[in-house]
Every structure is written in C-alpha cells, then in structure tokens.
C-alpha cells in the first residue's frame, strides 16, 4: 500500500487564480530565502523590511523605476522575438550598440534643435540594436543558422567594442571611471514633473501597449502567431517565413537598442563600461515571468529594478549582494513551479494497491 | 474459428466521463485467447478511451476489469505491461535516434547497468522470426518506414511478454499490401494463443481479418458478433445507426455525363520534382484537368502523391517541366501566386499543414487571407468580418465547434476537415487538390466532404482527387491516373476501366494511355 497525491488537469483558470498564483509564488520564494538568511545569521524580517522601506521611499521608488527601465525594454525585446519562437539572447549586445551609436551621435554629431536631435538619437539607437540583431537574423533567415548561438556570441563583440571606446578614445578625460562625457543637458529627456523619474518611462509604457496591440490586433501580429505555432501552415498559406524572421529579429534588436537610448537620453546621459550589466539576460527571465505578455513586462521589469536597488541598500547592513541574486533566482524558480497549479488542481490523496 | 476457452480479459460495465462528456457508458467486453477482436466505431465512439482505460492511461469512473479470472486495478501503463497488456498507439512511441534494439529494451524492464547489445539483438531476431516480423535490430528507427516502425512497436510488446495486444487503427498508416501482411502477423500471434484487439473503422478489413467484432456507438456497446455473422448492412446500421447514406446512383449517373465538363484549364507537362531527401519523387508527370472534372490519382501511398499535391500548390519546386492554369505558367511561381490564381490545396496532414491547431476557429478562417481587404484594413484585423465569416462557415457546413474562439485542435477530425474545406472553397478556387481528404474521418463526415467536392465540380471547379480507396475513386472521379514510383502509369476514363486494370497499373504495369 502506498499513498499518492492526485492531480487533475484544470478545465479553466479563474482570473483571480491567474493573479494570485504568481503573487503567492513570490511570497513563497521570499519565505524560502528567509530561511537562508536566518541560517547565515541575519534577521530575515529586518532585511526584508529594509528592502521594502528602501523601495517605498520616494527616492527609492524613482531609482527602482529607473533601474527597471532598461530591463523593461530588454524584456520587451526578448518577448517580441519569442512571439515568433526566436531566441534573442543578444539583447545585451544590441543594447550596447544602441547606446554607443546614440551617445556617439549625441556627443559628436551635428548641433540640432533638441527635439529633433532627441528624435534622431531615438532612431539611431533603434537602428543600432537592429543592426546588431541583423548580423544574426540574416544567416537565420537565409540558411536556418541557430540564432540563439549567434546572438549570444555577438554580445561579446559589442560589449568589448563598448569597453574599447569607453576605456580608450571616448573616455572622459581626467576621470577615474571608464565612461564617456555626459551629453549636453539640452539633449536630455525631461523628468516627469518633480518625481525624479525620466519621461523615458512614458516611451517604454507606450511601446509595451503598442506591442500588445500589434500582437493582438494587426495582421502582422497574426502572421507571427501562425509562424510561431505552425511554420508549415504559414508556408502553405503563402506567408514568407524568411522575411518575417528577418524583420522580427531586427525589431527585437531595435527594442533592445532603445534601452541604450533610455540610458543616454533619459537616465545616465552617458555610456559607462559594462552598461548593459546583464540586462539582456535578465530580460529573458522577465519575458517569461510576464508570460510573454507585453503589458505585464513593465511590471515585472520594475520588480527586478526594485530588487536591484534594495539589494544595494541591504548591502550596507552587511548582507552580501549575492542575496539579491539568490532572491531573483528563487522567485524565478517558484513562479515557474507555481504555474503547475494554474494547470492542475489537487484531486485528493488516494491509496494505491499494488497488483 | 471456434473459441471455447474462458476469456483472458473481461471489462465489465466500464463508465468514464470527461467533464460533461460521457466517453464510455456501461461498456462490457470479453476477449478470448487466440482471437482477433475488432472494436469498430466512428470517431468519438469511445474506442480509444476504452483501450486507454485498459492500459492504465485513464482510470474508469465505474466498472471493473477481470484479467485471467482475477479483479485488477490498472493504475498505469506500467501496471498493464506487468499484467501482459500492451498497446500500439496510432502515433508510435519510438525514439528515432536509437536503434530498434535500444528502443525495444528501453521498455523491457530489464535494468542492467551495461547494455548487452549482441544479446539484445539476438532476442529480437528470435522474437521477430517466430512471428515473421521483419525488423533489423541494428537499424536506427529514423531510417525505417512507417510499416517497419509499426513492426518494431509490435516486437516491443511481444518482448515485454504481452498476452493481450491492442492496436489502435493499425492499418491507417499502411499501404494495402503492408496492411495485409500486418494482419497475417496478427493472425500468427493469435494462433499462438495471444489475444489481439484491433481498433478500426474500416468495415471490410474488420470482416475479413477479425474473429469477433464489437461495435461501439456513443460510448456504448451497440452490437457484438462473430465475424462470420457480420454483414456490411448489419455493421453499417450498428456504426451509424439510422442515418441514411446519400444515394450514390444519381451521382454515378452524372459521372458519365461528360457534357458538364468545360475546357482543359489545368495542364502539367513532363513535371519532375524531388522529395524531402532530394531524391526524384515525380518523374515526368503529364496530365490535364478540365473545368468541372474530378481527376482521380490512384496508387499506393508514398508513390509521389504528396509531392504531386505540393507541386501543384507551389509548395515544392519543379525541377523540370511546366505547369499551367488557364494558360498561365506557374512552375516558377510562389505559393502566394498559386493561391491568387485560384489553386486550393487540401493537404494530407491537415493539422500539420492545413490548419494551426493552437489557433482558434476564427483565426484559422483567415489563414490565407489575412492580407485581404475584408480581413485587414491598414494592417488592423477586422474582427467583425472574421467572426461573421466563421459563423457562416460553421452554419453552412455544419461544423461542430465548442466556440469560435477556441483552438481548432479541440475539434474532431471531421469538423477540422470541414473547416479546412469551407475555407478553401470560400476562396472560389479554379482548381482544388485534395490529398486523402476523408482519411481517418467517420462515415458521416467523409460523406459531407465528398458532397462538398461534388458540389464544387458541378460549379465548374477542376479537382484533383488523391486517394487510396479505389471504390471511392471510382464513385467520385471522371478520369483516373495511376501513380507508381513517381510515374504516371496511365490515365483511364472511370467508366472504361475496372478495379483489375487500375490494380495492375498500381503495381507498376504500364499501359498505353487511351
């Protein structure tokens, strides 16, 4: 005789459950991490309290949002690719090239009226990201070369190119840190009132909404969905999978490139060494936690931004910064595992008789 | 065959519901050693559910299973295998990158740390020679044809020591010759004392090959009889009930009426093409189809039918020859141009090519026409028009669906095919290529599909009709071309040839075209 738990496939999932499952999963992850914190001799409640109060403070909130903005953009970039089953692992590199071209144009380009200049910076950052993606997109579309490997390897190319420029020719003279000069203040995007949050946030939210509408309301979004689900049927229907692959990866890169624009025009106003700092990879996690829903991506991006900011704060109290990474990892694990309860329901304990 | 033993297996009063759907209601079934027992019924009659209960995939809501005289609870396929009950599913459960021997041993339950390859292969050879199942143990599964893979599945069961073998639609994937040799093998296994259960919806095959027949309808046992007492009439009435089959005679009469045929609109000359592996699959095929004509392609599956249908639809490049519709050369044209010129393809694998199972009914309706003025303006999808057309298709072609916004993968095969036809026909095609359009469908759905094709032909659409069922080809088509090994062996008017002649051509005898 052995006893075992039985689960049944759910026929439908209520909206409440959809929202509550990830929330409970996140709480469970925090509880799990609390255990570790306690084992390491920290006071979990105090650590979490410090984290929450950091994010809750006015300065903390705006810093969390600003830390989250590039993550939201890379999250959206990865989401866009995955909506056609394309793994864009290269958002880091696309972000870097977008930032470099954008900053280069801002620093060394012609003097223009600010609105026009910022518009050009926006377009150039997108082109930069798209160009970085194109290098992988073309072989993928033409010969079916694996885009996962290509985009990932290209990260090194652009990140090292960035290092070369910020440690070398573009380095701000007389500074210890490897960074470029700040761009002229007239080319900065304004803050939203007195919140200290750059108005680039509005652009990000707008992109999220537009992407959602693109996927659900347009024929191009429809075609992407057909190709994602059944490329053979797409061919049968006369759609050009090749062109779609090329455009989708480039668009994904362009959105990642905008993270560079967000930093240069909105937040840092310059390029620093290792600016992307893994945002492209975090973007993958964000895209999945958001269930590839562009409307949810900004929320999750903000959450990860808040984790970054609050972990810096708790570091001051002697908790190692790795704790933040651990919390991120645990949340990912718990949320993915929690999905199980959206798909299955508990059907009681049954005893089982061995034949 | 006289069976006087006690049953090896009894299923008593089995009931199973899924949500509000009752898949099996009070089903009882006895299976004797030494017999081939056929389970007959339409799609959705509950055959597969019943067998899935027997093999431990589903737990029954009520009823019991008695195996070798004892009550058994079968909780998992593992339990079933341990008892000696094994099943060959319609979609094989083999690992393509492993060899035959490795696949068989994966399931054998022998847990040794090292693989004893020679011993494994020897055991399989013994097992296969005993039942005349030709498989080479060292071959990789991806190298095997479908028929060979099926034999591997059977060997797998025998090697597990199965006493009751269940086969789900085993002949669906086979050529007629392969099917016959498969049934010969099953007979050999029955003769050695095993019980064989065959799920099928082909009456002829069941009458010739089974010992006893149980007919399921709407989840209940409708009739059960020795095969010797079965007649087409009795089986038909059990399977479809009182539903009457449409009269064939008027249609047949109409077939002979050549007056309704228009001019030649589709012409293929000397067309050659390669298959997916880059080998010649079509070799200099020439044919022409007149408006309103149904041109049948007969032949054993795998002789170039798939490639022919794909070439006509523009999905497969033509290496040589020309292909014209109303005089317009299409051999180099894109799929899109083929669609625009009015060529519609009903592909043989509707769920892999013709439809997107994960997408909704509505989304499948616009598959080929998302660029059209009706369905998108400035790129924005016109939901209203899409829904209206979907609802109209559903009503006009009696397509049963759980909801227009639900994935079509949830619909039954017959309804999926009707949707596919509704969509293709709505494009007002000038030429329809239908590859095995009724394969795997129940009788009712198959008849509606044939009805749609006949209606199209009356309206002057040229039709290329690919099928393996010769009776069907004779009743549907004006002319018949026979494909063998990528070549067209000959073309005959349906009224001036017979099964024998077509059969000879199918086996590769070339005859002069009249």
What does this structure look like?
The complex is a heterodimer of chains A (355) and B (514). The longest helix of chain A is centred in the middle third of the chain and has 30 residues, at 114-143. Chain A has a domain at 69-302. In chain A, helix 4 (91-108) packs antiparallel against helix 5 (114-143) and helix 5 runs antiparallel to helix 6 (147-167). The mean pLDDT of chain A is 90. Chain A has 13 helices and two strands. Chain A is mainly α. Chain A is globular. Chain B starts with 8 loop residues before the first strand and ends in an 8-residue tail after the last helix. Chain B has three domains: 9-240, P-loop containing nucleotide triphosphate hydrolases (Rossmann fold, 3-Layer(aba) Sandwich), CATH 3.40.50.300; 249-342 and 429-506, P-loop containing nucleotide triphosphate hydrolases (Rossmann fold, 3-Layer(aba) Sandwich), CATH 3.40.50.300; 360-422, no CATH class. In chain B, helix 6 links the parallel strand 7 (164-168) and strand 8. Chain B is built from 18 helices and 22 strands. Chain B is 34% helix and 25% strand. In chain B, helix 3 packs across helix 4 (117-130), helix 3 (100-106) crosses helix 5 (146-159) and helix 15 packs parallel to helix 16 (443-458). In chain B, the strands form five sheets. In chain B, strands 6-7-8-3-9-10 form a six-stranded mixed β-sheet, with helices on both faces. Chain B is α/β, with parallel strands linked by helices and 514 residues long. Mean pLDDT of chain B is 86; it is low at 243-250. The chains are: A mainly alpha (355), B alpha/beta (514). Chains A and B meet through helix 8 and helix 9 of A and helix 2, helix 11, helix 12 and strand 18 of B.
How would you summarize the topology of this molecule?
The complex is a heterodimer of chains A (355) and B (514).
Chain A: E1 2-9, H1 15-39, H2 44-56, H3 58-82, H4 91-108, H5 114-143, H6 147-167, H7 200-217, H8 219-229, H9 231-236, H10 241-267, H11 279-289, H12 297-315, H13 322-343, E2 344-352
Antiparallel strand pairs in A: 1-2
Chain B: E1 9-18, E2 21-31, E3 36-40, H1 47-54, E4 62-67, E5 70-72, H2 77-83, E6 85-88, H3 100-106, H4 117-130, H5 146-159, E7 164-168, H6 176-191, E8 195-200, H7 203-209, E9 212-217, E10 220-226, H8 232-240, H9 249-256, E11 264-274, E12 280-290, E13 294-298, H10 305-313, E14 320-325, E15 328-329, H11 335-340, E16 343-346, H12 350-354, H13 361-365, E17 376-377, E18 380-381, H14 383-396, H15 413-426, E19 431-435, H16 443-458, E20 462-466, H17 470-476, E21 479-484, E22 487-493, H18 499-506
Parallel strand pairs in B: 3-8, 3-9, 6-7, 7-8, 13-20, 13-21, 16-19, 19-20
Antiparallel strand pairs in B: 1-2, 1-4, 4-5, 9-10, 11-12, 11-14, 14-15, 17-18, 21-22
Helix pairs in contact in B: 3-4, 3-5, 15-16
